[in-house]
Amino acid sequence: MRKKWKGLVGIGIVTGCLMLFGCNQTPTDVEEQVKVQAKATEEVKNATPNVEYLVPKKDGLKVYTKQKQEKVKREIEKKLEEKTYTVEKPLVYYNPFGTNLRSANVYFTTKQACRVSYTISVQDKTIKDFTRNLKNEGKSGVTKNHGYQLIGLIPNKENTIQLKLYNKEGKQIAQSSFMIRVPKVNSNAEQKLKVQEVKKGTQTDGLFCVMYGRSSGKLPNICLYDNDGVLRAELPVESYRTDRILTVGNNLYYSVGYSKVVKVNRLGEVKQIYDLANYTMHHDFVYEKSKNALLILASEKNQKTVEDIVLKLDLQSGKVTELVDLKEILPKEYKKAKKPEKKTVLDWAHVNTIQSVNGTDIILSFRELSSIVKIQNVYTKPKLQYILCDQDIWNDSAYKNYVYEKVGKFTSQAGQHTVTYIPGKTESEYRLSMFNNNLTYSGTRKDIDWSGYTLSQVPVEERNSYYYEYKVNEKEKTFELVKSFAVPYSGYVSSTEQVENNYIVCSGSPKVFGEYDSEGNLLKEYKISGDRHLYRVFKYTFEGSWFAK
Questions:
Q1: Which stretches of the chain score pLDDT less than 50?
Q2: How far apart are CA 383 and CA 371, in angstroms?
Q3: What number of other Cβ atoms are within 10 A of residue 87's Cβ?
Q4: What residues contact 244, with CB distance under 8 A and at least 6 apart?
Q5: What's the confidence (pLDDT) of residue 58?
Q6: CB within 8 A of 221, min separation 6: which ones?
Q7: What does the pLDDT read at residue 49?
Q8: 17 CB-near residues (< 8 Å, 6+ apart)
Q9: Antiparallel, parallel or unpaired: β 103-121 and 194-197
């Protein structure tokens, strides 16, 4: 009977009041996830005699290692095999795998197969309730063996958690509640962002995934905020940052180091650790379903050039393959670049976005050349297909015939980021959206003439960046600006994303991001404080991993 729990680690139902204390996390020491005071242990026993709980103890193992993950998994499975846990007497484990600083795992069984939803509330009028439907392993959407990672807890406060159970037909069959006092988490993350409501409107569901760059020597954990700017999850990293979070199957994929990518299941357990060996990541990666692989922008270690390699990481085998060396795609353009005096390496392309198209091609964003480039047949024989840019930049280039013609009068993108492929009715006609930084600068190409970029011919304090959306026609070899709206100026970094009918836009330099309606009107603006470097913001529902619809 106990074997049914094998491999299942998660959250469950508790009745009463559970209080955990003393879990301090520093952003430069992710292996010390939880430190629990002996006094607090006795308080929990006295307060909740029916709840059996586990809290991580310092064991000297780093979080993102096989040894750490397997050790925790064995501990929990042993508990589940030795005893039957019920709604009245559940097993509770605070952040067992160390991968989410504001989470708890709970385990229980039910006699009737069901699904579960939960609501977190705190005694703070500025923090609204947080409600989600939980994902389980039942193929029919219901199960008798319940394991969940409960995210959204507020540190240093008493969190009341209400769980509702529903049968297969959707009828509520039970309800339970319990309380967790979440320990204070010591990190450089803001618990609540400064939020300004600019215009009434409907926001999309989901959590804002806020990604930072390193600042003041502190590592930037991945922070997830709700629509009110309240921090609901914090995923620790070892170095670097992440560039996005991908949900593939029921698992999350994200980077936690310069050469390390992890696969994390819905319960917070690290299922696989990928090592990029002789390469380091930069700026972006994307999932290609036909290859079951991540395509990753990378630099090769100990080389004279950086940010000009595309890798394929096979998610099944973990094998890393170099797909494209951009020096071989645009060799004459590479030779034109000059390394700035104070730089030790040549960043001649500075590719900051990758998109996979039709299972064979990729679209790249070259910041140094303010160009969007499509490369064909990357798995067999990579070949340049087109360039989207102002013609003037490429007039004296050997590749000028690859530049598509602009339809209409508009200023081309400059220093763009997060170029995103939007499928059209045919493979040859589609759209590309982007954050147009409106930055007319190239550190390695002083010969570029930017005089035609009228949007940037104003003082920086009067300048805007823009959400841009192009319609690309490969048959006609044209591109046309079909949507544009102004956003706060950011010369570097930043991101855009379309979510349903709304737009998520991050302007990195002024440290703001916002959600805009379908007409480009700002609904809410969120601002971060401190000296942290705001890199990108995307919005995810996490349906299929943590949550169900």
A1: 1-3, 6-7, 9-47
A2: 16
A3: 19
A4: 209, 211, 254, 284, 285, 536, 538
A5: 82
A6: 27, 101, 187, 188, 189, 234, 235, 236, 237
A7: 55
A8: 47, 48, 158, 178, 179, 181
A9: unpaired
